[in-house]
Design a protein that fits this description.
Elements: H1 3-24, H2 34-40, H3 46-57, H4 62-83, H5 85-97, E1 99-102, E2 105-108, H6 112-117, H7 122-138, H8 140-156, H9 162-170, H10 174-181, H11 183-203, H12 213-219, H13 234-244, E3 255-258, E4 270-275, E5 279-283, H14 290-307, H15 315-319, H16 324-334, H17 340-347, H18 353-382, H19 390-402, H20 420-442, H21 450-460, H22 468-474, H23 483-493
Parallel strand pairs: 3-5
Antiparallel strand pairs: 1-2, 4-5
Helix pairs in contact: 1-2, 3-4, 5-8, 10-18, 11-18, 11-23, 14-16, 16-20, 18-19, 18-20, 18-23, 20-23
Length: 495
């Protein structure tokens, strides 16, 4: 592996991530990535991508081959970003400047989703959603152009389609994942539909046949439990959780909590691995509520994974790799909020049956939604679905999966680059296996075990070196299948 390339790639990652952190954390008012790409754009040319492919083919060891393959996949992603940078900036600027007239106010377009989640009146949600859709549709010509440019670049790289390119680059058979994940829909359909109908009726007053994505989001908000999840306790819960693993978060010099309240700071917690493992920032703007706590624990899992990555880890394994092998640790921490023992110990909520029922529905809905998204994205990126038919295919796939109506206009806004949707599904499936392993080995309160913490730190130390499937094999869990996840989802809905 060429040391000059890895050193430059590491510098690029640090400067790119720092710029995004400062913008999203509200420290900078604009996101200016042009100097970063002007300096490092040469790393992501077609020639460099081809050189990385040749380096992987000629590697003497499996480890070197994997490192070159990981870097090539990251280079492809950044090559695509460079190709459509002007379009991405135009779309972002348009979204940031757009407002809609509503109830005598000008509502920023970027705030509409949040407004819809907290609007109790169905007719008002419908009106505001229609206004949002018109804004989205106004930029879909740019999104179509962006998609077509990415499709052309995939062909320039010698792939017959974007689907084939990403499957080969990431080492994941996305067709196979989509087929196997289908069990998540069939196995959970009856219980999901029943719970969904009840929750929509009881919490929103909307029938399942009339429900939209926004109705579901409002039903799942759990605002009636806000008092149990006050903002002032967020950092304490984070601290106490990892203290159970023997990790003193207050003494971690390499993992910093950004808690300042800035006007343009993201309301949702996020993790910025600026220099792995030496500078990791967990950004929190405490608002409180069940969802906010879940996001904090999710991003806290990412932060600890990056923070405990060994300083000797190859750059490729510190900055790139199988994204499911990081998401699994985030989900592992996040879904402690579904464990009645954790809820009792941490929040004194007892059984909290209604909270657990709605939270389990939210999790099942998200998993099912991602199955639908993967089916849609695989068909679109493979070329089996044309761009002209994509909106109808999106509505059908998402509607069949979630049982609520999707907006046609979102057929490109809801499209993830690089099949990230499949990584989430694989991480969800692995999380169930890892959680069961930890419970069996360390007891029902495994999150209070320092031995469990030592095991997690050992796994985290390898960064992204091991794929999700290799982590499962290392722990003796067998191949990652989706049936255990389906069973776990059904069990949660039955609580």
């Amino acid at each position: 592996m060429r040391s000059d390339y890895t050193a430059e790639f590491e510098s690029f990652s640090e400067q790119f991530t720092r710029a995004w952190y400062r913008f999203t954390a509200g420290l900078d008012t604009t996101l200016d990535l042009e100097p970063v790409f002007d300096r490092f754009g040469y790393l992501f040319t077609l020639e460099q991508i081809q050189e990385l492919a040749a380096e992987a083919d000629g590697a003497f060891t499996d480890r070197d081959r994997k490192a070159a393959r990981y870097l090539r996949a990251a280079a492809i992603e950044e090559h695509f970003a460079l190709t459509t940078r002007a379009l991405d900036e135009a779309i972002a600027d348009r979204d940031a400047a757009a407002t809609v007239a509503f109830n005598g106010q000008e509502v920023p377009f970027l705030a509409i989703r949040s407004r819809l989640r907290s609007e109790p009146r169905a007719e008002v949600r419908r009106e505001l959603a229609r206004k949002r859709e018109r804004v989205v549709e106004g930029a879909n010509d740019l999104r179509c152009e962006r998609f077509e440019k990415h499709r052309d670049e995939a062909k320039a790289l010698g792939a017959v389609s974007m689907a084939v390119l990403w499957s080969e680059a990431l080492g994941v058979d996305h067709v196979n994942v989509a087929e196997r994940a289908g069990v998540l829909l069939s196995a959970t359909e009856e219980r999901y539909a029943s719970t969904l109908a009840t929750v929509l009726r009881d919490r929103v007053g909307v029938s399942i046949g009339d429900a939209t994505r926004d109705d579901l989001a409002f039903a799942l908000r759990l605002g009636d439990f806000d008092a149990a999840f006050p903002a002032r306790r967020m950092t304490m819960v984070y601290r106490d959780l990892f203290a159970g693993f023997g990790i003193r978060t207050g003494s971690q010099e390499n993992i910093r909590l950004d808690l300042e309240d800035r006007p343009s700071k993201s309301p949702r917690p996020f993790c910025s691995p600026i220099r792995v493992p030496d500078e990791v920032v967990l950004v929190v703007r405490p608002a409180g509520g069940f969802a906010d706590f879940g996001a904090l624990l999710h991003e806290g899992g990412h932060a600890q994974h990056f923070g405990f990555t060994s300083a000797d880890t190859h750059v490729a394994f510190a900055r790139t790799g199988d994204r499911a092998s990081s998401e699994v640790w985030a989900f592992l921490m996040q879904y402690l909020l579904l464990d009645p023992r954790f809820l009792t110990d941490t929040f004194g909520l007892g059984d909290a049956l209604e909270l657990r029922r709605v939270a389990a529905l939210e999790r099942c809905s998200m998993v099912r939604r991602h199955v639908g998204k993967l089916r849609y994205e695989e068909a679109l990126l493979s070329g089996r679905t044309s761009l002209s038919d994509a909106a109808s295919a999106y509505v059908d796939c998402l509607g069949d999966a979630t049982l609520v109506r999707a907006s046609r206009c979102d057929y490109l806004t809801d499209l993830d680059d690089g099949f990230y949707v499949a990584d989430y599904l694989r991480a969800w499936a692995l999380e169930v296996l890892v959680r069961d392993y930890l419970r069996t080995r360390f007891g029902n309160h495994w999150w209070t075990s320092r031995s469990a913490g030592n095991l997690l730190k050992e796994l985290w130390s390898t960064g992204f070196e091991y794929s999700a499937d290799e982590i499962a094999a290392e722990l003796g869990l067998g191949p990652i299948e989706f049936d255990p996840l389906a069973d776990d989802l059904k069990e949660g809905l039955a609580a």
